[in-house]
Amino acid sequence: MASTLTVADVVGLLEQRYPPRTAEGWDAVGLVAGDPDAPVRTVMFAVDPVQAVAEEAIAAGVDLLVTHHPLYLRGTTSVAATTPKGRVVHDLVRAGCALYTAHTNADSAAGGVADALADLLDLRERQPLTPHGGAALDTLTVFVPREDTTAVLDALAAAGAGDIGDYDRCAFTVAGQGTFRPGADANPTIGERGEVAEVAEDRLEMTLPRERRAAVVAALRAAHPYEEPAFSVVEHATHPAGTGIGRIGTLPTPTTLRALAERVAAVLPATAQGIRVAGDLDAEVSRVAVCGGSGDSLLGTVRSLGADVYLTADLRHHPASEALEAGPPYLVDATHWASEWPWLPVAAARLEEDARESGATLRTHVSTIVTDPWTLRLGAPDNGTTTDNEGVTP
């Protein structure tokens, strides 16, 4: 019989996929409202924590609402129902529906918002636009009398050494012979002052996060039987991680800017704005950069990486105009909501999969309410002018 997960359980599953530590420093991610011990049977995913979405979740009897955008990004001193955000909190809490946010940590994760957008275009050989730095790691090497190796290893593991992926207490040992001569002022555990001692020792090596170095060395000194243990710490070279904001990759076959834009319009959910395109519509494009949400801050990065075209949202007039003056990348501009929505069904499917692997069953629902703020696009009135790519012609 399948077990029932709690809010805390589901949050744990989500944070395995979208670790909060990878969120930008200015971001606000995590559990916003709800009892961690409350049971969860149904989860809904949406982009925005707005009133219409809250009402949809409540009507569907959802136990946990997961949104991409934070409800309170800049903090608040009140959740009174006299404000739109406060009303969302009150309505969800009253209905027993928790609220959780996965924002920039979901943007950058493997299988997150950026990858979901890249998947729609079948981008190959992709990499992040701004990769996360690889984890800063050290390797500690210490020589230990053989009968004390297990105790020292356990102490190092308890201090944070030896965690690799889903494994802990990872270590490597090699048997050998240690030799030393205690000085006149030494207080040796083994041997006599002024006399050469030989001891059967193990060379013990463990990897540790660099931020745990001081704690691990302190644990080593406390657990090691020698007055002056022989050890060294070597820093690993850091390499960019496979996660980070945005993605850049190559289309399966080159196409034109017009054809690519038409494909974007076909695969993204429809909004009143539609898709805006800037550049030579007949130009051949192959290398494509994507960034869900507001992406004009990355225009320089995209150019430096050699992209032919950049798909993002919320492009502003001056950054877009200046970028085009410098040549490719050409620009394809969607709405913020539409560029991030494709992640929702991916996240829902993966949460169901992770729940099954934990022995539980979850039902998920993906909101299709268009929460893009613009609801209507009007053409220019017939005022005796026409517009084209060259400008306004009387």
Automatic annotation (TrEMBL):
Keyword Metal-binding: yes
Ranges where the record places region Disordered: 375-394
Record Pfam families: DUF34_NIF3
Domain of life: Bacteria
Keyword Metal-binding: yes
Assembly mode: Homohexamer.
Family to which the UniProt record says this protein belongs: Belongs to the GTP cyclohydrolase I type 2/NIF3 family.
Protein name in the entry: GTP cyclohydrolase 1 type 2 homolog
Native organism: Oceanitalea stevensii
Classification of source organism: Bacteria, Bacillati, Actinomycetota, Actinomycetes, Micrococcales
